[in-house]
Design goal:
Order of helices and strands: EHEHEHEHHEEHEEHEEEHEEHEEHH
Distance between the termini: 35 Å
Bound molecules: nicotinamide-adenine-dinucleotide, uridine-5'-diphosphate-4-deoxy-4-fluoro-alpha-D-galactose
Structural class: alpha/beta
Shape: globular
Oligomer: single chain
Number of strands: 15
Strand order of the largest sheet: 3-2-1-4-5-7-12
Strand content: 15-25%
Number of helices: 11
């Protein structure tokens, strides 16, 4: 059976994806520097999947360490999640983001080339579309224009690097997955989004507000041209997202394939608050503040390419995500 190296595998999306990969029988090694995740995640994976990945505490920027990892292990495929993702911090510390995300990916690709590993799946983001004339985003749209932060730029640059590497080697196989907004967690409540840093995404903040760790949610704007004035995004249950990776592996072929992973449905911030209140049975304190710099009013995926070519579509809803989030919170 194929052996996969999962970079960033103790993180939020990586850990959920490992559960789905184990269901298909893959062997898995994880490398992570534990900057934004905890080693205990591996025990939770074992509890759910009955198997525990080999773990290497390693930084993508440590070329020698990475090279040694590839020398000692034969991988068929890399699923590359590792990266920094805090949009606000990337504006303050752009070099840290370019170095970690772009520099780290270059190290990884150099090791893959050296050790003849020819397949990679990359965690990209809807952010690469920048601002478009319509809120519904599809893979034929141009990317790289109007990206409002260095984090987003790193995703765009890495996509371009991957295309160039594939161009230079006819055997190289790349799948770029453009995630929309991942939410929720494994239904067991054992795994979840548990960032070490201060979150700036909606769902982890809602979770912290509900636990009393943050006083109230700031709603960034209620004057957007959307039905209720708040921002609209395409929230995708992380288990659906994880399954998208499994479908992508089955489809891999020489060259570059690009897919949106989203539900195709937009949900507003106020609708997210209402869904959380419904699942938790209590009010969520919030106040409306000004718009956040760089935010778009409304975006959602056109997921039809992934449906047609991967046979993948979302099966879970925002309500499922909220229920599973409550299960996770109640376990903490
Ligand atoms: P996460 O922070 O939970 O996981 C990323 C993991 O990478 C962490 O465990 C972190 O410790 C590790 N890491 C970071 N830099 C590293 C380095 N230099 N060497 C080794 N390990 C390193 O984030 P996530 O939400 O699971 O995101 C996974 C990927 O998906 C990221 O590339 C992210 O940019 C991308 N993505 C996430 C979202 C989202 O909203 N969560 C949306 C679009 C794309
Ligand atoms: N929001 C609030 N209050 C908060 C946090 C967020 O009102 O405290 C709102 C935002 O204004 C936005 C929505 O909730 O309307 C979602 O915001 P997130 O920060 O959770 O997500 P974004 O859509 O801004 O960004 C996410 C990922 C990025 C990725 C992008 C792709 O965080 O990594 O989706 O669209 F690039």
């Amino acid at each position: 059976m194929e052996r996969i190296l999962v970079t960033g595998g103790t993180g939020y999306i990586g850990s959920h994806t490992i559960i789905e990969l184990y269901k298909k029988g893959y062997e898995i090694d994880v490398m992570d520097n534990l900057f934004n995740s905890k080693i205990t995640v591996l025990d939770k994976i074992e509890e759910i999947a009955g198997k525990k990945p080999n773990f290497y505490e390693l930084d993508l920027l440590d070329f020698e360490g990475m090279d040694k990892l590839f020398s000692e292990n034969k991988y068929d495929l890399v699923v590359h999640f590792a990266g920094l993702k805090a949009v606000g911090e990337s504006v303050e510390k752009p070099l840290k983001y370019y170095e970690n995300n772009v520099g780290g990916t270059i190290n990884l690709l150099k090791c893959m080339k050296r050790h003849r590993v020819k397949k990679i799946i990359f965690s990209s983001s809807a952010t690469v579309y920048g601002e478009q004339p319509t809120p519904k985003l599809d893979e034929t749209m141009p990317t790289g224009m109007g990206i409002t932060n260095p984090y987003g730029e790193t995703k765009h640059v890495i996509e371009e690097i991957l295309k160039d590497v594939a161009e230079s080697d006819p055997e190289f196989q790349v799948v770029i997955l453009r995630y929309f907004n991942p939410v929720g967690n494994h239904p067991s409540g054992l795994l979840g989004e548990d960032p070490n840093d201060i979150p700036n995404n909606l769902m982890p903040i809602i979770m912290k507000v509900s636990r009393g760790e943050i006083k109230e949610l700031n709603v960034y704007g209620d004057d957007y041209p959307t039905p209720d004035g708040s921002g609209v995004r395409d929230y995708i249950h992380v288990v659906d997202l994880a399954k998208g990776h499994v479908a992508a592996i089955d489809k891999m072929e020489p060259g570059v394939l690009i897919y949106n992973l989203g539900s195709g449905k937009g949900t507003s911030v106020f609708e997210m608050i209402a869904a959380f209140e419904e699942a938790s049975g209590k009010k969520l304190p919030y106040k409306v503040v000004g718009r956040r710099a760089g935010d778009l009013a409304e975006i959602y995926a056109d997921p039809s390419k992934a449906k047609k070519e991967l046979g993948w579509k979302t099966e879970l809803t925002v309500e499922d995500a909220m229920r599973d989030t409550m299960c996770y919170l109640n376990n903490l």
